[in-house]
Amino acid sequence: MGNADNRTKRSVMTIDNYIGGFWKEPASGKRMSNLNPARRSEVVGLVPDSELGDLNEAVEAAEAARRAWRKLTGAQRGALLYKAADLLESRMDEIGRTMTREMGKTLGEAKGETARGAAILRYYAGEGMRPVGDVIPSTDSEALMFTTRMPLGVVGVISPWNFPVAIPVWKMAPALIYGNTVVWKPAAETAVTAALVTACFHEAGFPAGVVNMVVGEGALIGQGIAEHPGIHGITFTGSGNVGKRVGLIALARGAKYQLEMGGKNPVIVAADADLDLAVDATISGGLRSTGQKCTATSRVIVVRDVYETFKAKLAEKVKALRVGDGLEAETWLGPCASEKQYETVLRYIRIGVEEGAELLFGGRRPEDPALAEGFYVTPAVFDRVKPSMTIAREEIFGPVLALIEAADLEEAIAIANDTEFGLSASLYTRDIGSALTFIQEMEAGMVRVNAETAGVELQAPFGGMKASSSYSREQGQAAIEFYTSVKTVFVKP
Ligand SMILES: NC(=O)C1=CN([C@@H]2O[C@H](COP(=O)(O)OP(=O)(O)OC[C@H]3O[C@@H](n4cnc5c(N)ncnc54)[C@H](OP(=O)(O)O)[C@@H]3O)[C@@H](O)[C@H]2O)C=CC1
Ligand SMILES: O=C(O)CCC(=O)C(=O)O
């Protein structure tokens, strides 16, 4: 993997692809630099700029491994997942620090995410011992009819930079336990973290070719995965534009696909809400990970009776959040993950102001000269946002909250539903009737009452409605639906 001895230090790690059980230089020998978003002059790693030849080699390795892998028992595959979980957990500090240096989230969040990766691996390791299929009564009294499941074959995993451990693990762990082999293209921006995760699979003793990692430009290697005839299923998390493209390519060649894309997640604050609880959840749901979660709260829809009180409480707490390097213990909010993301956030803040929303707080570079070299922006709160404004409609993926006033709960739910997205939504209320109306009316894959919009439990289905996903669900027992095909068996003596 290169420079492994210096993993936790501020040294530059040189990363290779992982193909057929070996760390391999990209055929071109070319590499890209990954920068620390907290300090743009600091190079965290040199990561492969792979070509299609590297991808082809990985697909061949995955194809060569898949029959023997499928023939192992679930318990045998699960034993390897348990080992990978133990390794990931034992390296929580090293992986967390690398993640923070590579994409900026605070060390606490990065370590928490790594621990979550280990928990996901253990959940799916156990899945190797759980029942599969149903016995179905046949109309023929002599016959036995039942369902079983087959793995898809080679699964292509295309993952983003915002959860560089949890998302690929929640895709790879079920793919593997159900008997598939994997070719993983992590986001190039977090490929050093990805290599540390891959090292856990390698050292756990997964047979050669079962897990492969190829790092390169999304438009080449990601698209190459979508197009590759040797890849039978593609699971993608990222932007809507790329996701739709991946889906269209997969559909055209008859491959199975699953897309998790953006969100424009609302929190509704009802007149009877516990306002302190709602404020804390808005801050945590909207601004943790610098707002770079597909489940992040971005629209804060507050019923008129409590709008001004809620706004004052929110502004006071947001002002107190400490922006800084995620490695510093006192930092609450790290930098945006990249210059591209930073420019996007600043552009949306400009658009918000131009369209007439009132910038109540933040949305600027911090004044501290120690932060001048990073992609920092102070958390922004916009007041008097209209549902038609761009900042209320498009996914920003940054620390920006848009406050929208609603006359009552009915109008709040109508505003919440007036979006192309439908990933997550929350309501703060003390009234059971309001909660039930919200649960019934809200068009979102995850609805949460008195809980923030972000926060995914690994054992529950995760996914969105409308443009947020391809209607499929990940995680928990739902994952089996994507990573396997049902086979109906009819046996007569
Ligand atoms: N739903 C979510 O969790 C996420 C949503 N987003 C949204 O997307 C916006 C842009 O982020 P960005 O990183 O550019 O997201 P992308 O959709 O570009 O990236 C997601 C993954 O897809 C890969 N990719 C890029 N282009 C292609 C392609 N043509 N075919 C196949 N794969 C491809 C990327 O590779 P590489 O990056 O190496 O080029 C990465 O691995 C964010 O501002 C946010 O709104 C982003 C990340 C996660
Ligand atoms: O909220 C979470 O923990 C998961 C969010 C997520 O899946 C994403 O941002 O892509």
TrEMBL record:
One Pfam family per UniProt: Aldedh
Domain Aldehyde dehydrogenase positions: 23-489
Keywords: Oxidoreductase
UniProt KW Oxidoreductase keyword: yes
InterPro entries: Ald_DH/histidinol_DH (IPR016161), Ald_DH_C (IPR016163), Ald_DH_CS_CYS (IPR016160), Ald_DH_CS_GLU (IPR029510), Ald_DH_N (IPR016162), Aldehyde_DH_dom (IPR015590), AlphKGSA_gudD (IPR054869)
Active-site residue list: E260
GO MF term (any one): oxidoreductase activity, acting on the aldehyde or oxo group of donors, NAD or NADP as acceptor
Superkingdom, taxonomy of origin: Bacteria
Family statement drawn from the similarity comment of this UniProt entry: Belongs to the aldehyde dehydrogenase family.
Protein name: Aldehyde dehydrogenase (NAD+)
Organism: Cohnella lupini
